[in-house]
Design goal:
The protein is an alpha+beta fold. It has 8 helices and 13 strands.
């Protein structure tokens, strides 16, 4: 069985955020919520200041604290090592959100149809759409995933069934694509500079394994001292401890929940 992971080349990333847009289109995430978020941060001081970028999906940890925190068996370590949410089990306790050191989760407090970029149920909107444009949804994500290795519940609604009201959502590593044998994530597919790589970490011939082997002196992971053993690896220089986030994320619970109480406009990034 594969053990999927991601390698992100920070030396190549130019902060275009095409990955964020592709992920949103692929997964139909509600307005203001993102599975993938690209941090823009500043290091140094004038005249030696520079702007850098750090894409942050879910880390799909080998030792995921969110799984242990959930009392409803709704956060599971699925086949291939992916960490997913069972939306049929999720009760919105948000303990997984609190347990995650990377801030990748968000709580969907609204009905999905009312939480997109406009309210699909609004009569005025329906009058304009006239049923021609359906509520935004990728049908591939509505299919349940199966794994015979899970004796308790071999079929779970993981990639599908998301964005329900009062559930916790996050990056799935495009599980619905893997279920179809497609090993290219949406964010990887659109990256114009090939900064994002996805594949089997246990396959020595995979691109991710080759990059980790050939550029081993550049590899780092976020918050390795947390003991989570994340499966997202970065190539390049890690952000400095005092790196300053350039922009405050507007109304993004998965980012804004990390706001620094000592700074009115501060956002604590995942490297701190």
């Amino acid at each position: 069985m594969a053990r999927y992971g991601m390698v992100i080349d920070l030396n190549a990333c130019m902060g275009c955020r095409a990955c964020m847009v592709a992920c949103k289109i692929e997964n139909g995430t509600p307005a203001s919520h993102f599975f993938m978020y690209v941090f823009r941060f500043e290091e140094g001081n004038y005249p030696n200041a520079q702007i850098r970028f750090l894409p942050r999906p879910c880390m799909h940890c080998s030792n995921p604290p969110c799984v242990e925190a959930c009392p409803f068996d709704a956060r599971v370590q699925w086949r291939d090592g992916l960490v997913e949410t069972d939306y049929d089990n999720c009760q919105g306790a948000r303990l997984c959100e609190q347990a995650c050191p990377y801030g990748v989760n968000y709580f969907n407090i609204d009905d999905p149809a009312k939480n997109q970029y406009f309210d699909y149920d609004d009569p005025d909107i329906q009058e304009v759409l006239q049923g021609i444009i359906p509520a935004y949804w990728n049908p591939d994500t509505a299919k349940p995933s199966t794994w015979e290795g899970d004796e308790k519940k071999p079929e779970r609604r993981l990639a599908g069934g998301g964005h329900r009201k009062n559930t916790v959502n996050k990056c799935t590593f495009c599980l619905h694509r893997l279920d179809q044998g497609i090993t290219v994530t949406a964010c990887q597919q659109v990256c114009p500079v090939r900064a994002i790589h996805f594949g089997d970490l246990d396959d020595p011939n995979s691109e991710v394994s080759r990059l980790l082997r050939e550029r081993s002196n550049e590899v780092f992971r976020l918050k390795e001292d947390a003991g989570t053993d994340p499966k997202v690896f970065y190539l390049g220089m890690p952000p400095e401890r005092d790196a300053r986030v350039v922009e405050t994320a507007p109304v993004k619970p998965n980012v804004q929940i990390l706001a620094d109480p000592e700074k009115d406009d501060g956002v604590i990034p995942p490297w701190k």
